[in-house]
Amino acid sequence: MDFSLRIRPIVGVVRSSFSAAPPRAAAAVAAYCFPPSPPGRVMATHSADESFPLHGLLPKKETGAASFLTRFPDYDGRGVLIAVLDTGVDPGAPGMQTTTEGKPKIVDIIDTTGSGDVNMSTVVEPKDGAVAGLSGRTLKIPPAWVNPSGKYHIGVKNGYEFFPKALKERIQKERKEKMWDPAHRAALAEATRRAEEFDLAHPSPSQTEKLQKEELQCHTELLGSLEKKYSDPGPVYDCIAWHDGITWRAVVDTSESGDLASCTVLSSYRERQEYATLGDAEMLNYSINIYDEGNTLCIVTSGGAHGTHVASIAAGHFPEEPERNGVAPGAQILALKIGDTRLSTMETGTGLIRAMIEVINYKCDLVNYSYGEATHWPNSGRICEVISEVVQKHNVLFVSSAGNNGPCLSTVGCPGGTTSSVIGVGAYVTPDMMVAEYSLREKLPPNQYTWSSRGPSTDGALGVSISAPGGAIASVPNWTLRGTQLMNGTSMSSPNACGGIALILSGLKQNGVRPTVAAVRRALENTTLKVDDIEVFAQGHGIIQVDKAFDYLMQHASSPTSNLGFTVTVGNHRGIYLRDPIQVSAPSDHGVGIEPVFPENTENSLRISLQLHLALTCGTSWVQCPSHLELMNQCRHVNVRIDPQGLREGLHYTEVCAYDTSAPSAGPLFRVPITVIIPTKVTESRNQEISFTEVHFRPGQIRRHFIAVPQGASWAEITLTSHSSDVSSKFVLHAVHLVKQRAYRANEFYKFSSLLEKGSLTEAFPVLPGRTVEVCIARWWASLGDVTIDYTVSFHGLQTSPCPLHIHASEGISSFEVSSPLRYEDVSPTITLKNWVQPLRPVSSKIKALGLRDVLPNNRQLYEIVLTYNFHQPKSGEVTPSCPLLCELLYESEFDSQLWLLFDQNKRLMGSGDAYPHQYSLKLEKGDYTIRLQVRHEQQSELERLKDLPFVVSHRLSNTLSLDIYETHRSAMLAKKKANSLTLVPGTSQPFYITSLPDDKIPKGTGPGCYMTGSLVVPKSEYGKKAGQASAKRQGKFKKDVVPIVYHLISAPNKTKNGGKEKEKDGEKEKDVKEEFSEALRDLKIQWMTKLDNGALYDELKETFSNYLPLHVQRLHQLDSEKERLKRLGDIVAAADTVISQIDQTALAVYLTMKTDPRPDAASIKSDMEKQKSSLLDALCRKGCALADQLMQSPAQEGASASEVGSSDEDPQGVAKALNDTFWEVQKWAELTDSKVLTFSYKHALANKMYGRALKYTSKIVEDKPSKENWKNCIQLMKSLGWMHCASYTENWLPIMYPSDFTPF
Known about the structure:
This protein is α+β, with helices and mostly antiparallel strands.
């Protein structure tokens, strides 16, 4: 048995090659093993004197880059500018300072996502050398600052909004340990000691002493509660910007105290390459950019380690340690952050299109893009159009990762493997990498990583262009507190290839050769090293060979075809891809269109003179094509015939290659890729299963099976059994169906499993009947030793109709039918509802032109529409907002981008999301919320169509709900005898009946238009259920339900009002009209009393209605809400006493003790008594508050006259006694924590200097009404208690909880 020591690199945003981490960059990071020798096996001896294989840490030898630099030391990337579109690059990271010529390594650092933007539209002028920051702090302006206008732009930014996730987690932990825990422990120990001492000193406490005891208990309880509720708001930074007469400058207040003299003054990075560091603990380097005449400040940080690692591979430069250099140490970098920190560094359309604008502005030679997602359709969408425009019209080479979603075919990501203008790079692992990076105990032959995505693209294009080493130990940002880190993925192979291409371009430029993108790509693909035993879909044309590609370009620089590109089309596709049984049942003809593509601004004379004599070749007998083609400046079509009859089961690939007859040695000018899959048929005689025995697997070996899924099958089970007694092994089980206009991930199953010695394992996954499924069994590339296994794939089927199942609540009884087409199957249907969905319409929509960052070439202005939606969250829970029209569309979307921001009623940002809603669920407390959705496009008319765009909020149910299922309609009607499990005979079916959800189970807050979602699980077997819940995606927690349920809600039942009081009214005598008018006039005057400041109305009404309680209640409210309330405290007390005197408290108390009231008018008596109790409690509390205010004011205003204070004839002792009496009186009628009593409870405690009790009550007030004023009361009490750490922590929350405006997009 092997024992493994796991080395787990901690990475912020890289996606695991085999885990279910969220999708971000296309990198992968894994835990690697150091398995020791099993007993009895002799290991090779190693000497400690052996030199470390440094060349394996960042591989350059295998790609020819090392030998190229030996030949041409000056062609090291100098003169080449690489745009790195990623999570951002740390300018302070090792190797990111200078090029080999001493030039700045990074020419500019730009955050194109908007996640670092700060709204700086507030303009202020200093008073006495200071301005009030938006955080509430006073910002001291250093006298040395030059500002001719005297005006400053100010803003505020929460640090955690732009901290990388891993850094935020580390800093939260460190801040708690340093800034909170020591002070909190001391406060808790002191509070506990004081409470114990008081208990010992007062064994039989009096009434007053009990309050003191309660006060001390409150201290410990509050401290415990504060500890539980602790959630670090993080640092809050004031920002200030100004124009010094020459340029814009800005400062981020990293002191967090307003001491701007101690902070670094920066200008936009491109001007002086300046950056600063946020604190010694954080070690987060940041730079700035200033836009919109000082109204927008962008704080640029790296959102994760990924971007710096990528840049380091492509172009890191270490003058003292050249062996650590990146592939092209002489190249410069334009760092473009396209990973939005708000979205855990997910790429956005906004970020990508702005990035492409910057690529054009800076005249970049190369782009490296180590990101990508699965796409529903290839080679289209607004983002891909902009990328293609930059490549074709501005001659920029765009190099991208192919994806980490192998080993199945057609798993290449977008744009790397699906876009014609992009060079997609697969990931390759070499023996030297295995030793140096992964510390494997054996050197294995070179191989493609198991997880490297495979072609072809769904439209037949090869998908992977070239491959390069897909792992490296390279530089990472300083905030990680490490210099280098191992990462692997096509994210690493892409910059390795990109660095290699930079070397080629550097050499060509120095020789005066300026090739087109098409020329470079053709050179790369025609000179690759093809590795034996690695299929073409994995390695593409082969491993990049820098030296050979350079020689090829130099040799063919003067060739008439060297700068031509070619577009190959097969209908709407870019190749021929036959996969489903119907496509390969007979020969087929395919029209292939070939059109030459000239470089931008080619002279018309050259277009006219094009005359190419092409030879077409194909090396297989099952493809027939013309032998020659004459091509001029137009699209020519040729016919290709495919005859798949007679081909063995499995995978077949070939190419039709076109050679220039005048220069055949230059290799193909273009290729037509052809992929044919002959699926295995499952016959009934095989018992709906396929078995393979004694199958031998080497490390990294892959066996693919393409199976025509039997009609009627709905899931498959795969079982592996090991014959090897001494080797445990790791396998990837991967299955993919391809469905038109759906990404591979929509019908994908993936499982990384360990198969123990002589062990077995079984997995289940859903299948689509009548289609070809690829089932891939892959030995993990680093799983050592050979193993022999048996495996079986068996098909099962339970068909449900209809699917998906829509149930309308108004139907009462709904039905569905289950059939078993293949075999005996046990059925036990259950329906579970998991969410309720609330559709929203916008309350406002606004279209406007964006700023200077959003203008494409030729002044093509981009526009935005901002849609605002409001919704109420009825109770705390998890929600998932999404825009159904734009859901799951990113690269393929016809709109530039989408981004929603969700705010609470105070404009605090609670969360954000974009195209993939399941990644952005939020936990929300009860309350009102606003969602602002931004959609961008070049055409205003396209945005106009969206002005009423629906949006949905899916609320997760705290407890799932089940619907009752019956076997007969009669059972459902009578709600008797629910369906149990039953066995279906092959070929039979069974109807089931569902009853509606009871009204009392409908979630609170729903209404017409809302619906509930869930799933129907039909199989009884463990694996049948497991297949229904199989992971449809490796990334995220998204699960696919085999039968989705949508339950449409209707309006709630009508309830009778007033409990039948209408009948009572009939029996009452009709009032006299004059009397009715008199009462209505009285009530109108009472309503107006609070709106009129004087007491004239009250005095007038008092004469006539002296015993009318609402009159006196209104007078009390009038006095208590006056602006000069503090001068009328005595009057308030008197008015409260008048209300109290109007109420017969004894009669009220007697009534409240009654359990039942037999009187016929019991309902109206109850209503009257409840009003009396409410008025009494209200009067007592207002009286108490006024007395408490008198008591707290009297010492503070000793110099003022008694009338000013409002206490004309009461001495402080008398007021204190009256307050105490009121305190005990209130408790006869309500708890002190009752929401109506809380303000009085708080003021009573405050007047008695019982700050613990006061904080307890004001904390409860904050829970009910979380206003800024109430929070400030809490902070003041924390200070009075000496809990300064709690006060400063709460103060830090205020600017975050109560921002001045919505966070910008």
